[in-house]
Specification:
By secondary structure, the protein is α/β, with parallel strands linked by helices. The protein has one domain: Arginase, Chain A (3-Layer(aba) Sandwich), CATH 3.40.800.20. Helices cover 33% and strands 10% of the residues. An eight-stranded parallel β-sheet has the order 2-1-3-8-7-4-5-6, sandwiched between helices. The protein binds zinc ion (ZN). Zinc ion (ZN) binds next to loops. This is Histone deacetylase.
Amino acid sequence: MAPRKDRVSYFFDADVGSVYYGPNHPMKPHRLCMAHSLILGYGLHEKLEVYRPHKAYPQEFAQFHSTDYVEFLHRITPEMTDYYKDQLVRYNMGEDCPVFDGLIDFCKIYTGGTIDGAVRLNHGLCDIAINWSGGLHHAKKQEASGFCYINDLVLGILELLKYHARVLYIDIDIHHGDGVEEAFYMTDRVMTVSFHKYGDYFFPGTGDVKDIGERDGKFYAVNVPFKDGIDDAGFHKLFKPVMTKVMEIFQPGAVVLQCGADSLAGDRLGCFNLSIDGHAECVKFMKKFAVPLLVTGGGGYTKQNVARAWTYETAVLLDAQLPNELPVTEYYEYFRPDYLLKPPVNTLIDNGNAKSYLQAIKNTIMENLRAIVHAPSVQMHEVPPDSYIPEVDQDDLTSPDERFSQFQKDKMVARDDEYYEDEYDQDHDTEEPRRHA
Ligand SMILES: [Zn+2]
């Protein structure tokens, strides 16, 4: 019997929510349990296929990352940091990217979910794959960066490139998607489009509109730099026309959408004024193109808003309607005082994006995109067959089929009651923000 196709495959393992970056660190993986709990509370799991992701193997990490860095991540524990000071400096680990208990398992799970989603999309086993635990877009080939260790997005895109001639990456996190852009900066097979805050030394400092890719990748990196306080209207004044044009000229076989929620108003590290509706509008807009879609999380440092946004975006991907009153879940008190899915937006930050500024950015980007149409070297309609193995994947790893048989997939369909978690984050985000990522 042919395997049944899911409309939406959803990947989650509660173990990602139990790791702790440290008492003063803004990244709280517990937000993933809060989001999942709200998704269950609204009953959305009844419309999804829920899978527990496989734990990614070192060889899978090494498809992008250097083997010495991968080995180090497997070896290092909090107790050993005094003995490995040089290596910690070399791999950019310390304050922003601390060594914590369970670090490597955390990486294996969030990366496994993104790769599994790509594999299911490649095999036509779903239309949409969701991994809110993934989206760690800053990680580099041989170093950690901005709370990210392994770049699951790069690995997911490499997986998609085995079956698709062109893959589009879109990033709506407030921070520039630098790790993904850098990985594919010189190829025309992956177009990266990042919408982010740029300027004032905001992390990571890259993502100027002038950065457009190099060599074969020239014009295939698109950067949309905003200033503080961008609102829904301003954001979509660029997002919609730019993405329409990109879809028209690039015609990707699959789309990866990183939905970092630190671009929401009121984020602990962010400085944008997007509402949950405005953020989710990006998801709604991309879904309409009906191209295989891999959706991940990313940043997001006001936990209750992260949970709200990703729950609502799950509903958007399912075409489900949700009442604004939140269901009672184990984390209900986090959503005080209103207990609403979409509380009124509190815009505390002035919008520094003048109409003329947005228009100028749009003009520059549209002009760059027009250059692609006239680029003689790009053949837009040649899609390789399924067996095609792209140049970027030279390793002799086991094929997706061997690694991930239907039998294993079926075994991974977990019971709903396995997903209730007892742990409770104690620190309630009382510390002052002091870092960026
Ligand atoms: Zn971010």
